[in-house]
Amino acid sequence: MTQPIYAIGDIHGQLGMLEQALARIEADGGPEARVVFLGDYVDRGPDSRGVIELLSKGLDEGRNWTCLLGNHDRMFSMFMEDYPRNDARLLVGYHWLHDRIGGVETLQSYGVEVPEGIRIYELHAKARQAVPEEHCAFLNALPDYHQAGELLFVHAGIRPGVTLQDQSQDDKIWIRQEFLKDQTEHPWLVVHGHTQIPAPQHYGNRINLDSGAGFGRSLTTAVFEGKQCWVLADTGRVPLLPETA
């Protein structure tokens, strides 16, 4: 019998939703369940710190968990470097602390306020004092994909026609339209998040699990046995079938 693999979409600081999702997984698959987290643990929601603490504690305890890198996680990590960097994949005029990105909420979860008029070097110094080194180490160690049999788990997607070993990290955590519009069959069923949609969707060659938790909507948990997929709800498994044209 195939061991189930559970996947959780973009969390974005929603600790309560994450705890509920893990409770559903344990009820369905037990405490040793194999779980893949699709990245974007921070920004927008109220408790990015709590999310990182929960995930890193689980890894330290030897849980069968794989935590993937998301673009928001990398932006946070870049800000926390000795000299803060800005991700070059952002639009001109955007940065991690922009209202639409959510870095301010992440810093607030560590007790760091962002008053009007503060300069980046001043805020950076406060963040370096407040954010534990272990949290930075957690972010810096995140892999950018996980392949298991016929499934490929990745935060944003892959560039069609490029072998897995030649995929860039930028694409794996940032790509959108080139991947989303492609309808050709990939070597695996690609399970991803990054692009929020109202509800999880199976497109045949890919499954999107980002249902907008960062904006107060639901956090999606799915379970896979081979390529067969279910959404995990409070009432149990609900089949997620490929959409029909």
Written overview of the protein:
β7 and β8 (206-208) form a beta hairpin. This protein is an alpha/beta fold and 245 residues long. The protein is globular. The two termini are 32 Å apart. The chain has a 6-stranded mixed β-sheet. A 5-stranded mixed β-sheet has the order 4-5-6-8-7, with no helix packed on it. 30% of the residues lie in helices and 17% in strands. The longest helix is centred in the N-terminal third of the chain and has 15 residues, at 15-29.
Query: Number of helix segments?
Result: 8
| Helix/strand structural class | alpha/beta
Distance between the termini: 32 Å
**Low-pLDDT segments:** none
Number of beta-strand segments: 11
Helical content (DSSP H or I, runs of 4+): 25-40%
Average pLDDT taken over every residue = 96
Principal-axes shape call: globular
Largest sheet: 6 strands, mixed
Largest beta sheet: strand ordering: 3-2-1-9-10-11
DSSP strand content: 15-25%
Rg (CA only): 18 Å
Question: Could you give the order of the helices and strands?
Answer: EHEHEHHHHEEHHEEEEEE
Topology of helices and strands:
Blueprint: E1 5-8, H1 15-29, E2 34-37, H2 48-60, E3 65-67, H3 71-79, H4 103-109, H5 120-130, H6 133-140, E4 146-148, E5 151-153, H7 169-174, H8 177-180, E6 189-192, E7 201-202, E8 206-208, E9 221-225, E10 228-233, E11 236-239
Parallel strand pairs: 1-2, 2-3, 5-6, 6-8
Antiparallel strand pairs: 1-9, 4-5, 7-8, 9-10, 10-11
Keyphrases for this structure?
245 residues, six-stranded mixed β-sheet, five-stranded mixed β-sheet, 8 helices
